[in-house]
Amino acid sequence: MSATPPPAGPAQPDGSGESPPERDGEGAAADPERTDAGVDWSALPDPVRQRLADIAATALPDLPTADLPGPVRPVARFAPAKRGRLGAAALIAALRDSGTFRTAVTEWARSNRPELVDTTVTDRAAAAAAAVLVGEPAAADRVAEMARRADDAHLRSERDAAVARADRLRAERDSLRAELAEANDAAARAGSAVQAEAERLRGRLREQGVRLRQALDEAEHSRAERDAERDELRRRLDSAEAERDRERERADAARRHAERAVADAEAARQAAREARAADEVRLALLVDTLTGAVTGLRRELALTDEPGSTTGPRPADLVRGASPPDPTGSRVEDTAALDRLLALPSVHAIVDGYNVTKTGYPELTLSAQRDRLAGQLAALAARTTAEVSVVFDGAGVVAVPAASPRGVRVLFSDPGVLADDVIRAMVAAEPEGRPVVVVTSDRAVADSVRRRGAHPVPSAVLLARLGRI
Known about the structure:
Blueprint: H1 46-59, H2 73-76, H3 80-86, H4 88-97, H5 99-112, H6 124-134, H7 139-300, H8 335-342, E1 348-352, H9 353-360, H10 366-383, E2 387-392, E3 408-412, H11 419-429, E4 436-439, H12 443-451, E5 455-457, H13 459-466
Parallel strand pairs: 1-2, 1-4, 2-3, 4-5
């Protein structure tokens, strides 16, 4: 190792602003443009590269701008703490390519920081960087040694890491072996337990199989008994349903028989009532005959000047196949014919109420129409011996008179029943031979009562007769 050359003296006042070139140990002048071909700058170890970048970064503020290569000038404006770290690539490239810049940095270090270019320091990276910077002939060897040391250190670190990794893997292997052994022991114990449990379960399964077969046999037996019971119940049910149907048929027959008996009884009662009514009519006719005979006898004996009158039909009136000279059921067209009819013995005059009132005085209310007609019919009944009945439709009637006028029967049809049907029923209820007069202008009613032997009279004829009262 050669000693570090002494610092340069003060710059000569030659106006150039640069110090004269230094002499090396043999008195030869240093070449500022030399490249130190013996050093491979691209293979510099990282510690040497960083040391060179730090030296150049420290010298930048004091170097003339003319000595700074273009790529380095921006680095000079970096903060001191960032120059060596951020501008390391530019600084190393400038030191490698520019002998002027390298010489300037070297001279600055010799003048201001001689320890930076001291090749005898114990720090091998600092000594190698100083040797490269001052161009020491052994710089390549120092760099090579540093590279070898770096490689050795890297290899040692890799070896140590590999050894540590091997130790860790060995420890993990031992741990896994221990865990495997424990797992094998546990598996063996579990296998024994599982085998024992399997044997126990096989025993229980055999027992359950036996019980299952017994249960299946019992279920089959129970199913057979249930089927037999179901068949028996179905047979009994069919028998019961057949018996129920027979009982129902007998009950229906009994009900029909009872209904026929009731109908026969009702028919018998109706026949009895009709027979009794006929007997009463015949008795009344007999009384009227006797009364007529007495009256005729009194007339022949001149016991009275007033002709007698009968109150009922004569027996000859009940004889079928013959009619009096005044044809029964003929249509009456005048009041005289109506008077002759009303003069007949036991005559019954049936009046279609609203048919008459709506013909004679339709402008009145229905209540007023009923009252007026009932009063006029009462006067007519008082002047004749006729039985007078008047029939009104009951639909819509709010107030029914509490009492009928004297001598007049006032009737109202029930709900859903027409007055025309009531009139037909009254005509049908009269015994044969009794003269019946029906006052109506309804052609259907007139035709139906005429066929039953009644005398239909138009409403206008009755109104004309009432107008004379």
